[in-house]
Structures are given as structure tokens and as C-alpha cells.
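Q: C-alpha cells for this one, please.
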Amino acid sequence: MNEKKPYKIKKIISNNALLALDHSGYEVILLGKGIGFQRTKNDTIPHSDAIEKVFIPSSANNREAMLQLFSETGDELMTAINSYLEIVEKAFDQELSQQFVFSFIDHIAFAIKRIRQGIRIYNPFLHEVKNLYPLEYALAEKLLPLIKDKLDIELPEDELGFITLHLRTIKSNQSIAEMTQFSQLITTLVELIEEELSITINKTSTDYARLVTHIRFAIDRAQKQQGLGENHPLSALLQREYPVCYNLSYKLVKIMQNELKLDISEAEVSYLTLHIQRLAKVVN
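A: Here is the predicted structure, written as C-alpha cells:
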């Protein structure tokens, strides 16, 4: 039987993190609940002994960044995050990448620091994110009781929006920057609708959720080059009956094309017209 050789502890970073050497003498950082408790330098630790994550620094700078993050992140917060990451891995049925875990811990640690300093966390795209990624948002909410239990801190709803974007990167090929651009674009489109029609849209309404969902899938279709065709069967009727909404929809599609550098089919104009007309009717 080929058993994996144990690690040798080089430095205790915290109760939940160790700097160690593997059997080949390479440095690794080990994470796990209480993994550093009552251990000392040069102790050996087997693979099966409470190790939840193994980080392999890619460079000297990466090593120092990891050591600093894990040494500055309190034990209670690390315990909460580790418990949450287990929930996330079960939800997605996959092991999380080293890059994701590191960036997630870094993000949460910084968010907690700002909350403790009394700095308000503001997410201008919260409503859009909630509507675009409802499953990820629901998963983000599961971090709330863990942080409350360990730190007695209430994570604000705006922060849940940022966590949602992190979770979304696990299954999508988009970076957080790309998803933020997407959310920002939708915010711009919605603000234009409100300005052009002199209305205030209820961001918690079903009609608003339908609009955001349609835009999301319109962009997905454009990225996959799966357009709805050149025309909607009721295009002429919609243009005649709802000229203001139709012209506004045309403007929105052009903005999407220019911002995303994608070809979006003309049929999207008609479908958007239906959504905008429904919103305008509800408000008026």
C-alpha cells in the first residue's frame, strides 16, 4: 500500500494554518480547524489529520501574501470561513481551487475589517446581482449565521451581493470583473428606462426580475451566437402600438452591442419592448 508521507511543520501560522514541508521538501501551507493547536515546529502531521486545504505557493511573493493573510485572519473568522467553504463544496459538488479559496478568504477578511471600522459596504449592483444569480445569492446567505456565531457580526446585504459574484466564478468562465461589468451594464440600462419613461421601477417586483433575466439571457445568446432571429412575429404591431417603448428598446440593444462588442439580434428589441411596456404599465 502506497501511503502518502506526512508533512513536517516549519512554522505555526495560527491555530488553523501551518507552514510545512512535504516529502520532497517543498513548502506548502496547510489549512484546517485547529490544525496548529498544541503543535510545534518540526512536528509531523499526516495527510489525514484535519487537513482541509493544501496551498502550494507559486512564487516568493505569493508565499508572503499567503503567510500574511493567514496570520492576520483571526482563528474565529478562519473557522467560520472553513465551515462555509465545506458548504460551498457540497453545494457545487466539487473541490474549490486554491485561487478561489485564497481570494475568498482575502475578500471576507477585508470586509470584516471594514465593518469593524464602521465603514459602510455599498454595492450599487445589489438588485441586479440578486436577480441574475438567485442560487448563488441563496448560498451566500448561508455564511450569515456562521459569521454571527463566531464574530457576533451581521454581514450587510450589500456584502452578500459581492459574495454572490465570488460564488458565481466557480461555475462560470467569467471573472468577477466581467460579472461586475455585466451588472453595471444592466444598472445603466435600467436607469435609462427610468429616465426615458419618467418612472421608478420597483427592483423587488416580478416584472423587474423578468426584465433582468431576459437581458442576462440575451447577452448569453449573443456570446454563444444563438440569436432569436432578425424579427419578432409581432414586431410591426409592437412598433405601432408602443412606439416609445419600442424605440427605447432599440436604444438599449445598441448600448449592449457597443458595451459588450457583441452582435445582438433585432428580435431582442421586440422582446424588450414587451418587458418595458409591462413595467411602464404597472408604474402608471
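A few notes: Strands lie at 7-14, 17-21, 27-31, 44-45, 53-55. The longest helix spans residues 176-197.
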